[in-house]
Amino acid sequence: MINFINALPGAVSQGLVWGIMAIGLYITFKLLEISDLTVDGSFCTGGAVCVMMLTAGYNVWIAMLCGFCAGVLAGFVTGIFHTLCGIPAILSGILTQLGLWSINLAIMGMKANQGLNVNNHKLLVSLRYLQDVGKGTRPFWQHPIFAVGVFTAALIVVLYWFFGTELGASIRATGANGNMARAQGINTDRNKVLGLMISNGLVALSGSLLAQYQSFADINMGRGAIVIGLASIIIGEVVFGKLFVNFGLRLMAVSFGAILYYVVIQAVVSLLKIDTNYLKLISALIVALFLTVPYWKNKYFHSKKKVKTAKEVGGDA
Amino acid sequence: MLEIKNVYKTFNAGTVNEKVALSGLNLTLNDGDFVTVIGGNGAGKSTMLNAVAGAYDVDSGAIVIDGIDVTHLPEYKRAKYIGRVFQDPMMGTAATMQIEENLALALRRGKGRTLRSSITKAERAEYRERLARLDLGLETRMTSKVGLLSGGQRQAVTLLMATLQKPRLLLLDEHTAALDPKTADKVLSLTQELVEKDNLTTIMITHNMKDAIRLGNRLIMMHEGHIIYEVSGEEKKKLEVSDLLEKFAQASNGNFANDRMLLS
Fold first, then answer.
1. Which residues, including other chains, have CB under 8 Å from residue B111's CB and lie 6 or more apart?
2. B91 vs A177: CB contact, 8 Å cut-off?
3. Domain count across chain A
């Protein structure tokens, strides 16, 4: 139990970092209704670019910006595969993800991982900072929970603004009803590409934060990212869905979902003492379960409910 | 205003499912024309509207709107000229977006989408007034998700969206067919009101021959992908449903039994 409590700040920090990737995924999965598998690759791309830039002596913000842009580029490629080349969305993502494997290795100088010496750089987040704040050798605002928390809040504000603009609303319409969008003069193909670009940019940004946090980038760091992202979205929806209706709050719920996910995983590891090897299996099962429940609920309980709501709404036009 | 010139369209060409949908279709509309379209199933009525709207490319021929050849223009670019209401009430609106958001999207049809706010205060006031005129109580539910509305309400909103930004051409594809008779009547009179107010050039497909005769200044009958009968003005006003049935029997060599047309 003490182990678990000691590990909590770390779990929350990691959850916040992954939360940004889940927010990116939310844009494709929920707004555009595309399951974008690019993220497994672009997450690592962001981390790799960030670490290499830092090592080359660039400022942490520039390194993160470059990581973001690399992710945007990855999303662009997937978008072109899907719209211009007519490849189904899922396959487009898989193709980009596979291609990124080689590209990520190339970015890291043909190595499977690249370390970062925490002492040589000013980072935004780091596991070391977390420990230092605990020891009192660093000010509280360098604590990862505080730093990433503020960063996430700023991101949500920007996204809330963007999806409230004419362009942002047209992206939402593209996902909500492509037919209607085109009838209203919206270029749905362009919007899908744009959505994939923003999404993967955020995913890569999250990857560059994780690389800083753990002080290395690894070719496998994005493996299963989409499952963690989906888990966060679903947990956020189940726990906060009724409370958080507004778009900005929904994004916040996604971030909270990611935190809960990591706290639960930490609990499983420290309290049940399960071999960490099984974590991916557990994650996959949790997500499968959470995706199954709403489907079954619809199938077996919705038909009765539907009649009732139609009456309640008063369908008389 | 609109010219459809010798348009051909075949689906699944070269397969067992080959279906000739449009075959030498010619139609010219003048400004302010309100054309009703009737014809049996598979006559090519919906295909004609979809070809005009750009939902798919035609095999040959040309479509010209206001002197501009739009034959190869993508659907979203043609939307600048065209307002549309579909047969399926689910198709014309985004269910997961608010009523006012849907209207705001429609107001910007044919304009660039910038980083300005997607909906302004002044617009909201206008939407409220327009919705109030529908007399469906929607003006108090502007931030409700469209998915909560009934089919008739959704069709009324779609109609409003199609005409909010005055279109050069209004395309109505059996937009009352999926509604119950009372609601259909209401949506139809709303259609009439909106079309007359702005003197919109309109094409309306219907299966109801009484409506086809009653509404509009022109009527065309389609069969096997082209127009087989056309009537307008005074002559149209004097038309009876029995006349139309007779025309249809002649054109299709009495081969129209079991057709949905007979039911209406």
1. A185
2. yes
3. 1
